[in-house]
């Protein structure tokens, strides 16, 4: 999927580095129909977008929900850390 994405966006230099660093420069890419089946995506007749785009699009709601959940937890942790710092500062004797 990454190889197809990089080719589609004409990131040829990035693809070259990616393939050599992953040891995949001599490997044949998997057939698109195998990848589509593995990630449960149905091919549209006129679909020319890379599988990575289609995968992200078909899972957009789940991805957005996961990101929002992460932001909420991160925000709660930040506020909890601030409260803990305030309590610590209040408990220290003033000099």
Automatic annotation (TrEMBL):
Pfam families: LisH_2. InterPro entries: LisH. Signal peptide: none annotated. Coiled coil: none annotated. Residues 68-95 are annotated as: Disordered. Residues 68-80 have a biased composition (Basic and acidic residues). This is LisH domain-containing protein. It comes from Toxoplasma gondii.
